[in-house]
Structure formats: structure tokens, C-alpha cells
Records
---
Amino acid sequence: MKKLIAVIVICLTIFGSCYFASKNFNKAEHSISVQWNGEVYVTPDTLILSFRVEETAPTTKEAQKNANEKIDKVKEIIKQYDVEAADIQTSNMNVYEQFDWRDSGRVSLWYTASHSLEVKIKKANIENEWIASKIISEVSEIGGVLLNNISYDIYDKAPFYKEARKLAMEKAYQKASDLAEFGDVKLWDPISIIENRSYDYAVSTANYAMAKFAYDEDVVEEAEMWWWAIELWEMKLTLDVSVVYEIK
């Protein structure tokens, strides 16, 4: 008797699995697939400065020491403008050996330590440009500090992506509804939803040669006017949704 019950349970399990698999298969066969993207334009609220220090010395220890001393000076200047410690981050750091190729072969020279620092300035759009110009001006007095890049970003993108997501889903639903109407079928619930986010950024540039900043003493006075050359662009946040709706 127990064996009979066990056989019945197994049969029912197999039947149930086949039924639901068939049902899901039918769903996939009777569906509408649509894609749409949501776009939101936002004025950036964060200005990002990227500095780099390179120091060469006979040993790695000395090269690192010299680079760290300059980076510490840069940090001291930045902190004077109430920039939070969490917004002053090392983005890259390495030490490499330099070589000279001669007839006798490769000859080891000194060692170069490189340290890159990224600074986020979260202020009102006009104010952060002024702060950036002051930081650039004071850092330029240290000498040997490269300004790699000036850019804008949005400190917290989550609410804007939520808005873009809502727009994308609304457009996708409208498109699926139109297709269902034209195909004389009824639109049911989504079977699957897939989101793809693209790489979004705002571009802002200063119309000066970055290398000049590190070596030209005359640029120290000019640095006061850097913020006039920074272009603030709107930032476009984009994400795509792919939705599959069941139809009957």
C-alpha cells in the first residue's frame, strides 16, 4: 500500500511539473516583447578635480616619501575649504622602475612613485567653481602637481534613475498596449522585466593645457580665472527596460 501511495505521489509530481512547464512555455509563446529607454536631464551638483603627483628618486622608499609629502600638502589645502575627508580619495598609486637601453643591455635607473587624488566638491554650482579655482591656484604653488581632469557629476543619482525607470516603464507599457490593440489581443501582466543601464557622464572642460599648470609659474595668477573656463553641461541619465507581457 505504501509503495502504491509513493508511486501515485511521484506521478502527480511529474504531472504537475509538466503542467506548469507547459503553462510557462505557452506564456512565452503568447507574449509581446517591448523595449524602451528613460532619459532624465539633471544639472550636476558636484565638481571633481583629479590631481596627480610623480616623484623620482634612487629608491622606491624615497620616491614614495617625496610623493606622499606633496599629496599631504595638497590635502591640507583642500581641507581648508570644508571638503569632507570622504570626498578626498586616492584613485591610483604605483611605483615603477625606469630603465635605459644601451648597447650593453638594459640599465636600471631611478624609481618613480605616482599618486593620484580625486576631490569631490559638493556645493552650489556657482560656489563650487569658485572653490575649485582657489584650490587649483593654491595647489599650483606646490609645484610638480599635475591637474589631470576637471569634471562634473551628480553626487546621488538614485532618485534620478528612479524617475528614468518610471518613464521607461510607462513608455514600454504604452507601446505594448498599442501593439496589443493593433493585434486584437488582450494585454496581461509582465512575464519578465530586464533593466540595462548605460554609462552616463557630464563633460566639462577647462580650456587650458593641463601640463602647463604643473610647470609654468605664470599660470599661478591665471588659475584664479580657471572657473570662468569651466563649462557646466547638463547630465543625461539613461536606462533601458525590456519587458515581456503575456497576451491572450
---
Amino acid sequence: MPKLEILVRTPARPRPDSPRLLLVHGICVGAWVWEEHFMPYLADAGFEVHALSLRGHGGSEGRERLNEWRLADYTEDLRQAAAGLADRPLVVIGHSLGAAVLQDWLRTGGNRGGNGGGKLAGAALLASVPPWGLAYSAWRMLLSAPDLFQQLLRLDGKSAAGLDPAIMRRNLFSDDLPDATYARFMARVHGESRHVGVELQGWRPFAPAPWQAPPMFVLGGGADRFIAANAVRGTAAYYGVLPTLVPRLAHALMLEPRWEDAAQPLCDWLLRLGERRG
């Protein structure tokens, strides 16, 4: 089992009896994507925040074998990270690929003591791979953003050096993203497992049955070219909740100029979740 990186941010003023939060990132990045905005924001709200780098990502081991990893391997990483936080209630928050990993973890026992014995208080899906996979979204992307589709076909576990930075910027972020923010982002991205990319199309089930799910929160961006608004609505309908759609928000929402427009409704849901638990 590769050694996993987990970043931690503790609150200066902890919220009494609040659940711990565990953040899971999307493709080609690591736990570092949460560090600049979301981790301090949620810690300032009184939550203890943990961010996991899946194997082969960020500071976790396994980069040299990235093309070998499958979705089940990433799910095992989440299982291990959650087991280490089992002494208190937990909320897991996944973005994009990380939200698919979260759904697969729920399907395989994450909501039935599968986090090592601790109680799972809730789960949040941000710009999530839909429960039925990405096949429909991929066809839509081929028609509406063929340049982006071609870039994603080039992804493998070696590196992201072959990607066109202008195309990726136009499709990952809003137009008003500062140049310095994008330069920092591109300096740290890397490749992704081809196996996982295929699995995310939906050829094998990875979502739990709706009745297996804990309290759920579903959010997406109105300007997201990867996960369109209709996919966000469909994901929310699958889990029986109302979606939160943030106008002018693109896919890499935690680094967007309007990142707080996503963090605030998430935080509001976490606070309401705590009130219901209390």
C-alpha cells in the first residue's frame, strides 16, 4: 500500500461536536488544490479539515505506477484515510474524479462502518462525475468542445506536458482567472491513469444505490465545460436532493476567482448538517 499524503488544517476555534472533513481531489492534481482557499475557509468556520492525495498524486507514493492504478485503488486510499479519522463523525467531500471515488467508497461500505467504525455524517459531490459515468458527457464534449475532448484523450500516467495550456485554461477556468494562479496550477499538474479514465465512462457501476447514501450535497458550476449543469441536476435527482448551481463558476472551482461562491453554500450545508445531528 503506497504511503498517502494527507494535509491537515485545524481550526483556531473548533466548533463543538462538529464532524471532521475529508477532501478528495480530481484528476491530475493532489491535495494541494484545496490548500489556498477551501481548507482555511472551512477551518475558519470551525471544522478540522483533512485533504487526501490519492496514490500517484500530490505528495503520495505511486507516481511511477500511475498508469497501473484503477478506481478500486483510489477507493482503497479513501478507505484508509477515512479509517484513520474513525474516532469522530466524518463528512467526505469529493471533486470531479474525487467525487466518483467517494461514490465508489459509499457503494463498497463507506456508509456502513466502512470508514473504520466511525459514523459517516454526510457526503458532498462537487462538479461530480455523475452516478452513471461520463459517457454522455464525453459525447456532449466532443460536439461542444472538441478541442478539450482531444486534449483529454492525450492524458496518461506519464505527464501533462503534451497538453495545450491555452485550451486547458479556457475549459478549466473562467476567463478572469489571474495569470499567476494558472501558472502555479500548471506547474503542479501531472498525468492520470488511463484505466481510471476508461472506468469513469460508466462501464462498471461505481455509485451506491440512492438509499445507501448518507445525507448528500451536490454542487456544480454554471460555466463548467466538463460537468454540465444537466449532469449536476441529474446527480442531485439520483440522490434525492436539490442541486446547487453557481453561476459563472468553471470546473476547477476551488481555484476559481469566485471560489467562495462554492465554498459558502458547502459550509452552510455543513452547518445545517451539524444542527440536524445536534
